[in-house]
Fold this sequence. Notes:
Layout: E1 2-8, H1 12-24, E2 29-32, H2 85-100, E3 106-109, E4 112-116, E5 119-122, E6 128-130, E7 132-139, H3 142-146, E8 158-159, E9 164-166, H4 171-174, E10 180-184, H5 188-199, E11 207-210, E12 215-219, H6 230-246, H7 250-259, E13 263-264, E14 274-280, H8 282-288, E15 293-295, E16 300-303, E17 307-310, E18 313-316, E19 321-325, E20 342-343, E21 346-348, H9 357-370, H10 374-379, H11 390-408, H12 411-419, H13 424-428, H14 437-461
Bound molecules: flavin-adenine dinucleotide (FAD).
Flavin-adenine dinucleotide (FAD) is lined by residues 8-9, 11-14, 32-35, 40-41, 49, 51-53, 58, 113-114, 140-141, 143-145, 356-358.
Amino acid sequence: MKVDYLIVGAGATGMAFLDVILSETDATVAIVDRRDAPGGHWNDAYPFVRLHQSSCFYGVSSRDLGKNRVSETGYNAGMFELATKYEILHYYQNLMETEYLPSGRVHYFPMSEYLGDGKIRSLLSGEETDVEIGGKLVNAGIWGDITTIPLTHERNFRVDDDVTCIPPNDLPNTAPSFEQFTVIGAGKTAMDSVLWLLERGVDPDNISWVRSSEYWLFQRDNLLPHKEFFFGTMATTEKELESLATSNSVDEHCKNMESCGKWHRIDPDIWPTKFHAAVCSNAEITALRKIKNVIRAGRVLRIEKQRLVMEEGEIPTTGNALYVDCTASGGVALGADAPRVFDGDTINLLMVRMHQPLFSAALIAHMEACVQDEDFKQNSTKLTDFHDTPAQFLTNQLNAFLNQEAWNGNPEIKDWINKCRLNAAHHLLEGMTADDTNKIEVLGRLRPLTARAIANMPKFLGIEPA
Ligand SMILES: Cc1cc2nc3c(=O)[nH]c(=O)nc-3n(C[C@H](O)[C@H](O)[C@H](O)COP(=O)(O)OP(=O)(O)OC[C@H]3O[C@@H](n4cnc5c(N)ncnc54)[C@H](O)[C@@H]3O)c2cc1C
């Protein structure tokens, strides 16, 4: 078989790339994935997972996800809808079946592995297919392969046989047999699990929470890329840029982020050292603070019936709790080993804008289809890596600013970005006209502020200026 592109990975990034290539070129594509259905890790996600951010800028460029509806119930009430796992999987399956395969230009290989050198092997029959790649190999599984998710990760602690410890995936089936719950992990999966238990009526005093670290979190209420929330969202963006332009240290910037309402934390008495960019609403934070039995003694080493053996001591237990393992890493920084996005005959789908992997994949596809200038492609696709700490986040945010400056300098790219539904700002600016003088005034202040931020950030991050 001969195709123009072979995409390895039918997760969200592979699909975002495929969608743009199909609509902007005449190319043929083979797309391969070990999983049985498109959507990547969402296939193995826990049943009560949702997007962290609004559905309006998730998915692929050519089709909306959801109805841009405001949620009326739950911890996200008053904010824009967050698709569930099932909506996301249906969306991708439906795209594949009703759009991509009928185009006659896509060959889809589910339950198959890419072995390299154009070889695809079925995980069931073992049958091998040789694919001649006329154009490029597209690596869409890089992050997926190094990150771990709750269902499939390998625990780094021991669990005695008479103890029940489950991934959050099993919570709805297993929880009814227990009255007490211990959630292990400090990240978004643990937060989701605690919130699920609370929403289903578990008394907060029956939940213990092992948190070996504290995280800064984005405050969803002030991070809403919708025209109705333009001034609120922009107010915190402006404060953020002012802080980046004037801060003398990472801690000073973190403090500013909290006081302007862009970030928050669960425990106001503990200074977080971590930042994975999870997003929580104020209502979620209020609920999470109801858990009073927070166990802070480092990481869990072993769960026994009557005690938790921790890095920093032993905690006696009642012996009848259900343990929920939420310790999968969720993300890993590629660091200095990261490949370039445009790397000869290979395209690596990496993030080129912070926390928007799908926008990044779509933009990379557009550049592949329409941009000939190799220098521009190299200079405007700096990696915005996964991060573990606020300092790492800021180092990557600087790269994101530099990419954005490069895109702004290219009228065709700028126009494409403004129209792309995967670009969060597209929804913020939707319907804006020359009469929206107040909005135009706010936007006018951002560009010079960004330039000052770019100049100041290397000073307090202790890195070379770009
Ligand atoms: C709980 C959660 C909520 C999130 N919410 C948001 C959000 O609101 N907004 C947002 O923008 N982002 C969000 N993200 C981040 C990001 O959008 C998603 O994680 C995204 O789905 C990642 O897609 P991916 O294609 O990079 O990776 P994956 O989903 O891991 O897909 C990669 C695929 O590649 C396949 N693969 C790899 N190597 C091979 C090989 N050799 N042969 C065959 N197949 C291979 C794998 O089987 C896998 O299915 C969220 C992430 C999580 C975990």
